[in-house]
Design a protein that fits this description.
By secondary structure, this protein is mainly β. Helix content is 2%, strand content 34%. The chain has 1 helix and 25 strands. The chain is globular.
């Protein structure tokens, strides 16, 4: 299938782009970035140096994917999602001098397989979004999200667990270690740890 790169996109010749991926209008992909196979990089997306993006990832318009972020296979990143990578950002030092490239500490963030981040959500650096988790549009996520977790709000709180097909699951049974939930649509069952279940608000 090859790689499709729009003429207005700026892609470093030191970046690695997988087969079948598309990079659209005015996107920028910097050196040593790795983008997997069959990805869609939307209009105006910025992919920083050294970022790793898995296969079958969709990143919608105007998302900035900064250094220190890893996006695993099958992730959906909605338009205008905001990622960060510095817990204590400053433009200048206490004496007023401009901060240099080495004057900050990188905080790494991971978005795990199959997760979906709604439009205009903000993801604080240094956290992990679990497999198949879902973040509601406009949310501000400040802590780890468990696998299959549905979070939304400001700050985002855990409100349920979602099936990989996207439906909100329903509780079916519970023991000392896990809660079993089932999707009302596809009937898939999932086991959620008691620790994660007790985070529900």
């Amino acid at each position: 299938m090859g790689v499709r790169i729009h003429p207005t996109a700026e892609v470093s010749d030191k970046a690695k782009i997988g087969e079948g991926s598309s990079i659209w209008h005015h996107a920028q992909v910097r050196e040593n970035a790795v983008i997997g196979e069959n990805c869609i990089i939307g209009k105006g997306v910025y992919v920083d140096a050294g970022v790793v993006i898995g296969n079958n990832v969709k990143i919608q318009n105007y998302v900035s994917v900064y250094h220190g972020l890893t996006i695993e296979d099958g992730v959906f990143v909605g338009p205008h999602v905001c990622f960060t990578n510095d817990m204590r950002p400053r433009a200048v030092n206490p004496d007023g001098s401009l901060k240099a490239a080495d004057d900050w500490v990188l905080s790494e963030t991971r978005v795990k397989r199959g997760a979906a981040l709604g439009a205009n959500s903000t993801i604080r650096c240094g956290i992990t979004i679990g497999e198949w988790a879902m973040v509601g549009s406009g949310s501000v996520v400040t802590k780890d999200v468990p696998a299959y977790g549905l979070v939304y709000g400001n700050p985002a709180r855990l409100h349920g667990f979602v099936c990989p097909c996207g439906e909100i699951t329903e509780k079916r049974s519970q023991n000392e270690q896990t809660v079993t939930v089932q999707c009302p649509k596809c009937k898939r069952t999932l086991d959620i740890s008691i620790q994660d279940w007790e985070k529900l608000k």
